Structures are given as C-alpha cells and as structure tokens.
C-alpha cells in the first residue's frame, strides 16, 4: 500500500488534496499534517512514498523549504509542492531543491493534479522496486546509494554531497575509466542543463572529496567532451 503525506495548514485545502489523492489511487493511505513541527516529526518516523506540501505553513513563510531539506537528508522522498507562491519565482527554487514539481494554487484543475501525482507515484514505485544500493565491491573504496543523500562513502568516510551532485558522481562512477559526455550528464540533472552548471556540480564533488581526502584527484576533465572517473576504487 502506498503511503502519502499531505502537509497543508488550510484544512479545506488539505481535505481537497486528500480526496483527489484517494480518488486517483484507491486504497492509498494519506496522512495529513498542518504544522512544520508535526510534519518533520512524521517524516522522521514514517516512510512515505510521496509528500505533497505547501511552502507557507501558518506564520512560517518558507516552512516547506525546511521540510524539503529534511526530506532530502532523511530519505529523498519525491515531493510535489502545491502553493500560492508565484510559480515564476518558486518553480526554479523548488527544482534546485530537487522537488519533483510545482503547482501554483488556483492555476490548475483536479485533472492536472492527479496526472502529476500519478506520474510521481509511478516513479516512486519504480524506485522502490529498484532500490538496491550501488554497494562497494571488494577492494573498492567508493560506495554510493543514489536514493539516499548522505550515503556516499569514500574510504569509509561520508562524502557530503547534494542529491544532484550525487547523481552526477554515480553516472561517472558507473562508467569509470570512460568519458561521460556533457550531454549524458544533462540527463541526470533536473535543471541547469548547460556545461557551466555541470562544471559547477563537478567542482562541488571534488571539493567534497577533498574535505576528507586532500589528495583526491580522481575526476578528470576531458576538454570539450566531459569528465571521467579515474580514481582506483
């Protein structure tokens, strides 16, 4: 059975979203939370397949941002943001936070919500069915779980990476010794699909490795083409 959290401080809106979710997928379990504290506590103890949330909760204008950050650190559950905040401003912010999608209140219909929600649910199902981590093989020094932030280990030490950088690292590691083109790396980022942005992510990866291994030099820049994982392990 799928389990979904609806985090929305307005009761009628929360009930409407719950009703739409239940009509989209009969038998689904929906938990409703109305405050940041209650939502964060629930995320810490429950394993949700999808989270639907508002950005503004009560007097906290950006409570939803804090909740998304908590989700990314804990379990990387897909998040659908439903908010009255202007989409022209907040959609790019939510993408940068790795939210799945952003729907602006009063600008979408029930069918739009259900279509988006079902897409997320299918992705969550696929993720659960293919959630075997990329475990370290004997003598290998890098271990990555692409579904959990904070699970990347280098020589037994945690590498502190954002989710997007972690996905890029996984793409490089899965093709170690080979050049991974910019175009291939575009496929693993949700926004900023340009070479400058990819280079920034790779720089973030290198810096994170060097925080725990100052001599790390395992990602090669291949001019005009892309990057290559060249480290042993």
TrEMBL record:
Domain of life per record: Bacteria
Cross-referenced InterPro entries: CheY-like_superfamily, OmpR/PhoB-type_DNA-bd, Sig_transdc_resp-reg_C-effctor, Sig_transdc_resp-reg_receiver, WalR-like, WH-like_DNA-bd_sf
Keywords: DNA-binding, Phosphoprotein, Transcription, Transcription regulation, Two-component regulatory system
Pfam families from the UniProt entry: Response_reg, Trans_reg_C
GO biological process: regulation of DNA-templated transcription
CC per GO annotation: cytosol; protein-DNA complex
Signal sequence, renumbered to the chain: none
Modified residues (4-aspartylphosphate): 54
Key word Phosphoprotein present: yes
Domain (Response regulatory) ranges: 3-120
Single GO MF annotation: transcription cis-regulatory region binding
Protein known as: DNA-binding response regulator, OmpR family, contains REC and winged-helix (WHTH) domain
Annotated organism of origin: Formivibrio citricus
